[in-house]
């Protein structure tokens, strides 16, 4: 009855409208109509074109609503005309909500040939929303088997694609059992599983449905779409689904959007550009949205009604029921943190899982309530979106790079909020990095790399390290710095994960923790070695560029403190290809940073040695003697350069500075042995000049040999006052005379 009234309404000629009512013409133009103004105002050519298209659409809808008997497309000019009208308007502007009931009815009723029905279904592109009543009415036509199997299949694909455009979902949820009955059809089964996946709630999981899915799995084999639905069922009711399912996410469902992809993009661009009112009508939000750009459609929670007045009325009616335990709390009414706390066990997440990414309250919920079904739905949605919309994997998507950047940025911010990476992002990166050019969405991709979950080295080498290496060595200096920064953040995120899980373990779980720790130590060690290798080569390629060296040393500033700060029994010294360029750097910042890193290495190694000797109850991992030997070699080289001026004689590292006296004489450099002490070092020479100017303002010879004895100590104090804290802690911890002097000075201050 309701459908008949809709059709009759469309047939009636336009009459006077209520002030708050929007007719088809006004909706198409993106503005309200005013009868008086419309008579008085002069219509522009665009307005005339809009009116003409609106009239044609109304005529076409009226025609399709009156179809009674089977009509053939061949030699039927009227049908061809109206079909072309619907197709052209749908592609350019999208169809209004009023048109879906008529077009779905005629497409599924079997009154037209499959060719026409297919074209109609492919034209059903919404400009705003799709009324739920139209969808439910269309589903009812599946019961009478009037349309062919191919049309039923295409309708299911359309329903999946347009799922987020449907203004309500309650009546669709009531049809869950009806859709479930279609699983027996092998052709429709993948799409029915996809639709059920979107509709499933905890109350939808029943023992008989689980048995049915298991029977289908025995019959069809381990199909991805069946695994998806079973995985969701198992998350809701693990006691009912006892079989073992693959734990890692995969692409469960095929893309259903093909026939509507281009039209949705066209409608999105047109509506965003031309209609300011459309921005407030679209899905009940205040932002322009798009279905094809899934992150735009789903990053905002749509109101449960297309009419804002109705929404306000619903809020008033339900205000007394907000704290009722028997009813779920709608997320569109969740506005404050106190509401979240009071209703945290009654929240029902939206069908548009992407809306979670930009809602801090829902992210708090995910942190507090570890609901695996929420994570599974979010991972599925995100994995599908990343795979289908990647601008360098899909040729047609290159024009949407800015939107894809925004989406990746949103995903990264969500990972930072939750302090964990998404497995769907990991899979996306592993699949797409070999195809990536290193330019498109560079900062966003490298940020996502920093949140890749901990994995085995063999997996990370083939999927992460190898693709990065190919880009790293052939890209610009700034790309190299960005990669090093990303890998440093990846290391920090792994170490933070370890600290959190270490604190949560009890004493009874030490054995299992040691097993897990062994894998973590190996994976972290391989990451550090990998960064060391690429850093050595990069410094050679970039002629030891100071900017690159800063990022490399910043990475090792994290590495040098792993044992004490992150409670992980691992210390790896930087390779000689990093240490010596830093020691001989022309920049005081890098030299000061190297001094601080060596000081922290010493502190960590001493603590590890003391812990090993005292046999404290700590995870028993011993550092190799090679680590201590390498540190001592570096220490001798640094002290020989900066303090004793003996590096060329005493440096014992195979790649060190040791040179024969005859070779040094051939350099023809005066006082070559003191060339790298804290006075003559190229990175420190500016400080020495400034110190001489202050101490002897009348002397313009800049005689560095004057800085010795007591003046040497004064010079040290001057360097410390210039903010070289790394140099200070290194000298005070590694040189006996200065160390003893600093300790005695500290004792005098305490007394």
TrEMBL record:
Transmembrane segments: none annotated. Residues 1-56 are annotated as: Disordered. This is CENPI protein. InterPro entries: CENP-I (IPR012485). Belongs to the CENP-I/CTF3 family. Pfam families: CENP-I. Its main location: nucleus. It comes from Rissa tridactyla. It is found in: Chromosome, Centromere; Nucleus. The lineage of its organism: Eukaryota, Metazoa, Chordata, Craniata, Vertebrata. PANTHER family: CENTROMERE PROTEIN I (PTHR48208:SF2).
